[in-house]
Amino acid sequence: MSTRGIKAAVVAVMAALAGLWFAAPYWTLHQMREAAKAGDADRFNAYVDYPRLRENITTQLSGPAVDTADTTADSGREPKRSLGGIGRMLGRALATGAVQALVRPEVVMRALQYGQLMPKKRDDDPAASDGSPSPSSGQGGADDSPRHNDVEWWTERSGLDQVIFYARRSDQPASRKLGLVLERRGWVSWQLTDIRIPQQ
Questions:
Q1: How confident is the model over 39-62, as pLDDT tens digits?
Q2: H helices then E strands: how many in the chain?
Q3: Which of 30, 36, 70, 138 is the most buried (most CB within 10 A)?
Q4: How far apart are CA 96 and CA 64, in angstroms?
Q5: How many CA atoms lie within 13 A of 38 on its CB side?
Q6: What is the per-residue pLDDT across 68-115, written as a single tens digit (0 to 9) for each?
Q7: H or E stretch including 190?
Q8: 117 alpha-carbon distance from chain centroid
Q9: Average pLDDT over residues 115-121
């Protein structure tokens, strides 16, 4: 092979590797969605860093509780300093409990399929008023499970090692988007490490 041929081959290989590297997170998301659609938790779990995911979501959920505690302290008679520490502890404890229930394979797989973590309760569902799950929750009923093509997706790259896939139900405002954060592990391996939950 001539020198020109060798150079062309090297360029082709480098271009192929660059393309593989760039496409890897998108391929990972595709594989995750296919596993979720098939209900294959074992295959799906290989793409999720659950300890990191739980830690990140706990931090998200404990934030609002701390803010509420601090606001209460400002408006009440107790010093902000005394309630702030308690608020942080309470917020963290509440968030940890919520995350244990939230970060389960079936719930995370639902987020990949439908762009939401929990099913939407019907307005006329009596269970919605007492916090109990709807009888149709998780059963794929028309009221709580939108179609896959009702979810809009778009992407944001954050540096070389992180990609955020945003998902939003077509009947939801843009502020209700769910952010699925994938981080690079090695050359072309990616894992879900965070789900950015829209604030109420």
A1: 999 999 999 999 999 999 888 877
A2: 5, 4
A3: 36
A4: 13
A5: 12
A6: 444 444 445 444 444 455 555 555 556 667 777 778 899 899 888 888
A7: strand 189-196
A8: 8
A9: 66
